[in-house]
Here is the input.
Amino acid sequence: AQSVAQPEDQVNVAEGNPLTVKCTYSVSGNPYLFWYVQYPNRGLQFLLKYITGDNLVKGSYGFEAEFNKSQTSFHLKKPSALVSDSALYFCAVRDMDSGAGSYQLTFGKGTKLSVIP
Amino acid sequence: DADVTQTPRNRITKTGKRIMLECSQTKGHDRMYWYRQDPGLGLRLIYYSFDVKDINKGEISDGYSVSRQAQAKFSLSLESAIPNQTALYFCATGGRGVNQPQHFGDGTRLSIL
Here is the structure.
């Protein structure tokens, strides 16, 4: 079974400050990890993914994420937050070793990010 | 035009009614998915399809059915709607590689009174 935990329901950060949105995962095999962002009245938009290789992954809109296998974490980061980054963020995992089921994504419950001007 | 289009965007209906939500895509993806989103619960998978002849139940399929009419079309039905099916429903598509992200429509907000 695969699962994702986003321990913070909400994160508040001042504009211009660095931001971190936390994610931990559990899979029986090796993980594919994804971050998505959801703006009001819109579907989820893909931000970035970790497949293999470099533990620091860069994505859209200046976001990056750091994969840590020993801590089973994949935290989303951005050096300088913008008000326009305020949205709902979802972490998702796929177990690459689970055969046909590996096409299923398991999502966290989401973290609401508020960037304060 | 959007790559993944869901209709309707909003629907209010009554308990016991049959409802169909439709999804079409222009991405050429084989894989299509239906999710529901509830506040504080994230997204949960209802059904998924790898091609027209391959339909699979997800985590919460009870009370729902699907039809894959063509590669580009995947509809979700609620045969007899109940209030706890009030939620935001998303259709998504995915490419063939397991490391490919899914692409989402803008959702259908469904309210069952």
User: Anything to note?
Assistant: The interface with chain A takes residues 4, 31, 40-45, 48, 50, 58, 90, 92, 94, 98-99, 101-107 of chain B (CB under 8 Å). DSSP finds no helices and eleven strands in chain B.
